[in-house]
Design a protein that fits this description.
Radius of gyration: 18 Å
Oligomer: single chain
Shape: globular
Length: 186
């Protein structure tokens, strides 16, 4: 709680400095936008990222914002741009795949993920995105397996934790689902 309060203090201070031009507003805007995204304030994140200078991570974070705003095609485009600018291609493609899944283009998402099958074996994000593909077409056993693999790679992966809990709950594994829901909320 103390860390969060300190972050909020610093964020408000940086926002004030950017608005009064004590610091370069375009440089500060990127930092402010990412912080608001992390805090779950997507509208504020979008406002600040739009004002930000062209930083290396800007398209990636805009992709996350656009996906939260359900602007999936624009989100896909931003993740492609981020990869083209040197961001981690596997991560960008996993994010792009999730946006494709949410837009109903599951086959395209599978093709994107299949291109990383070898590299993805050790990636929690790749297993999570693969699980989302399976989940979206009703392949629930495969989805559970993929989410389990994601957690084997990163036992703190929040989205994999939540989706696995949900599917286990549907399948009657209530105790394990409960444990995972508690972990997800923490």
């Amino acid at each position: 709680k103390e860390s969060l309060n300190r972050l909020l203090e610093l964020l408000v201070d940086l926002e004030r400095k950017a608005e009064s031009r004590e610091v370069d507003p375009a440089k500060a805007a990127y930092k402010i936008g990412v912080c608001y995204l992390l805090l779950g304030s997507v509208a504020k994140a979008a406002q600040w990222l739009d004002k930000a200078e062209e930083a290396a991570g800007k398209p990636y974070h805009l992709g996350l914002v656009l996906r939260e705003q359900r602007r999936y095609a624009e989100s896909v485009s931003q993740f492609e741009e981020a990869a083209g600018r040197g961001a981690d291609t596997l991560d960008c493609d996993c994010q792009r795949a999730e946006s494709l899944i949410l837009s109903g283009e599951v086959q395209k998402a599978r093709e994107v993920l299949d291109g990383h099958a070898a590299a993805g074996a050790g990636s929690a994000q790749w297993h999570y995105a693969t699980g989302r593909c399976h989940e979206s077409v009703g392949e629930l056993e495969q989805a559970i397996g993929a989410f389990e693999q994601a957690l084997a790679c990163d036992d703190l992966h929040p989205q994999a934790t939540f989706h696995l809990a949900y599917l286990l709950h549907l399948h009657g594994s209530d105790e394990r689902a409960r444990e995972l829901y508690i972990r997800a909320t923490e």
